[in-house]
């Protein structure tokens, strides 16, 4: 991260093994459902998901102003341990210029639980990082409830 970019980090302990948590990130339907937080609605448009390094994903969602797309490319995949992907918005004028952002999801075994860390880096607008902290918080809350 450079000095003129902002980032966010969320850590939680999940009541599941890394293998069970990984199934959500490696499954197209579950991954897209996880990205659609309560503040973003689901649409009838299907998600596309090519789960390999260099593969692209695209998740259509409903936003306050209409249809939007969250998309990116998978940069690193270490099964049951780490997933790194680009994160871009299309159709949201307020976030179209937030920078080239990257999300890293890390899973670390902790007995029969998982230490989960989400890092989102590269925001060129600090306010966007703050707003994404709320959105990612909802995603992680939902993930936590999945394994409660």
Give the topology.
Layout (H helix, E strand, L loop, with lengths): L5 E9 L3 H9 L1 H8 L5 E2 L5 E2 L6 E8 L2 E13 L3 E9 L10 E10 L2 E11 L2 H21 L2
Structural Rg = 15 Å
Mean pLDDT: 86
Which percent bin holds the helix content?
Answer: 25-40%
Q: What fold name goes in the CATH topology slot?
A: Alpha-D-Glucose-1,6-Bisphosphate, Chain A, domain 4
Number of strands: 8
The gross shape turns out to be globular
Number of domains: 1
- Supply the CATH superfamily name: START domain
In terms of structural class, how would the helical and strand content be classed?
A: alpha+beta
User: Treating each run of at least 4 consecutive H or I residues as one helix, how many helices?
Assistant: 3
Q: State the end-to-end CA separation.
A: 34 Å
Keywords:
globular, 148 residues, 8 strands, Alpha-D-Glucose-1,6-Bisphosphate, Chain A, domain 4, eight-stranded antiparallel beta sheet, alpha+beta
Structural write-up:
Helix 1 (18-26) packs across helix 2 (28-35). By secondary structure, the protein is of the alpha+beta class. Strand 5 and strand 6 (82-90) form a beta hairpin. The longest helix is centred in the last third of the chain and has 21 residues, at 126-146. It has 3 helices and 8 strands; from the N terminus they run βααβββββββα.
């Amino acid at each position: 991260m450079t000095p003129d970019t902002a980032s966010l980090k969320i850590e939680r302990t999940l009541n599941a093994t890394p293998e069970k948590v990984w199934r959500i990130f490696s499954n197209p339907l579950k991954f897209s459902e996880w990205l659609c937080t309560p503040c973003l609605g689901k649409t009838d448009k299907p998600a596309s998901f090519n789960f390999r390094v260099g593969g692209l994903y695209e998740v259509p969602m409903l936003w306050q102003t209409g249809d939007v797309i969250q998309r990116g490319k998978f940069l690193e995949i270490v099964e049951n341990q780490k997933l790194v992907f680009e994160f871009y918005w299309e159709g949201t004028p307020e976030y179209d210029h937030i920078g080239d952002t990257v999300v890293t999801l890390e899973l670390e075994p902790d007995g029969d639980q998982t230490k989960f860390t989400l890092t989102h880096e590269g925001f060129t607008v600090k306010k966007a990082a703050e707003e994404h902290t709320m959105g990612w918080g909802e995603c992680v809350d939902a993930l936590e409830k999945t394994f409660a």
